[in-house]
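ok so I'm stuck.
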Amino acid sequence: MKIFVGNLPFTATENDVKGVFEVFGSVLSVSIKKKSGKNSRGFGFVSMPDDIQAQAAIAGLQGKEFMGRPLSVSMERPKAIKPKKDYKEIKRLRLEAKNKPAPVFTAPTIPEKKNPSKSFKRFEKEDKPRKVILEEAKRFSQPAGAQVWEKRKGRGTSKPWKKKPGGVNKKFKYAR
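replied:
not stuck anymore, here's the structure
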């Protein structure tokens, strides 16, 4: 029976752990898991041939102090079996999805209007000469005598804008 031994001191060797477990019976093997270097990961496994001796070791050593640390001793849990992926099947399913034609959706048809010329004229812009359009725009600009601002000439002035006397700015046709 395999026994999991956790919270081992990092300085503990396999012979030290074997000596502690031999008190309860014969030990087949001890393996302490190590990092990529030589350092211990703090846990290991002990193999004992007799289940009764292994149960006695688990009950006797659980929580006991070993080299300054309390041990965590239990039966080894079985590893979870991961199902193997069938990569050929996955590839086949992807190709099927890729080659599958997209569903075709049909949009509802919009009936045409019987007399399109009347509806078109409703939104048609009136043809006016430019002069008439400008005169209409003047009516909606500022009233005469409204204050207008103009930009001062020169660079770096403290006040770049000044009030222009009168209503309509001569530089711009329409005051804003």
